[in-house]
C-alpha cells in the first residue's frame, strides 16, 4: 500500500533561518513519483516539484532544495533563509507510475516569524 | 490565462439540501479530480475522471456525485446523503488521461462548504 508520512505537524522559525520539512513514503512500486505542494492561506495548492524514482539527484531552485534518498524512503524539503511569504502548509505526495492516483501526507504547517 | 477555476469560493447549505460545486479548466487537460480536505488531514480523493463521459470513485465517494459531459468541466454534487459535508473542496486536473501515465496535478483555488 502507498503511504506518505509527514511527522512534523507544525513548525515555527524566525525569518532568515533555514528549515527542513520531512517526508517519508512507503511503496512497493519500483517506479513512482514524488511531489511537493505549497498551500498558502488562500487555499490553493501550488505545485513545487515532481521527482521520479530513478532520479536521486538533489534539486535546488532558488531558496528551495530537495533531498531524495531511496535508501531511507525520504524526500525532504529545505527552505534556506526563510521569509514570511513561506508561511503555508506544505504537502508531500506520492503517485504510482500509472493510474493518476495521488497519496498525500497530512501536511506540515510552517510559520515564519518576522 | 490558463488555469482552473472553482466557484463559488464560499458556500453555505442547509441540512438536507443538495449543492453543486463548479470546476472549470482551460488547460486542455484530460483528467480531472475532486478532493476533500478537513482540518489537520491530507487530501482525500472523492472522484476522478480520465476522459469525457467516464469517471471513477475515489476513497470517499459516498454521498457525492459527478458528471463529465465536457472536457473542461467536472462539477461535484454534494448530496443530502453525505453525513458530514462541511469541508474544503479542491478540484485538480492533469494532462494525462487514459494514457495511463501519471502526470502532475494542478489545483484550483477551492470551495469552502459549510452546512448550517
Briefly characterize the structure:
The complex is a heterodimer of chains A (114) and B (116). Chain A is built from no helices and twelve strands. With 114 residues, chain A is mainly β.
Describe this structure in words.
With 114 residues, chain A is mostly beta strands. Chain A has no helices and 12 strands. Chain B has 116 residues and is mainly beta. In chain B, a hairpin with a 2-residue loop joins β5 and β6. The model of chain B has no long low-confidence stretch (mean pLDDT 91).
Keywords, separated by commas or semicolons:
heterodimer; A: 114 residues; mainly beta; four-stranded antiparallel β-sheet; 12 strands; B: 116 residues; globular
- Percentage of residues in helical conformation of chain B: under 10%
**Describe the biggest sheet of chain B?**
7 strands, mixed
* Unreliable parts of chain B: none
Number of strands of chain B: 11
**Overall average pLDDT of chain B:** 91
Fold topology:
The complex is a heterodimer of chains A (114) and B (116).
Chain A: E1 3-5, E2 10-14, E3 19-21, E4 24-26, E5 32-39, E6 46-52, E7 59-61, E8 64-69, E9 74-79, E10 88-96, E11 102-104, E12 108-113
Parallel strand pairs in A: 2-12
Antiparallel strand pairs in A: 1-4, 3-9, 5-6, 5-10, 7-8, 8-9, 10-11, 10-12
Chain B: E1 4-7, E2 10-13, E3 19-25, E4 31-37, E5 43-51, E6 54-57, E7 64-66, E8 76-78, E9 87-94, E10 106-107, E11 111-115
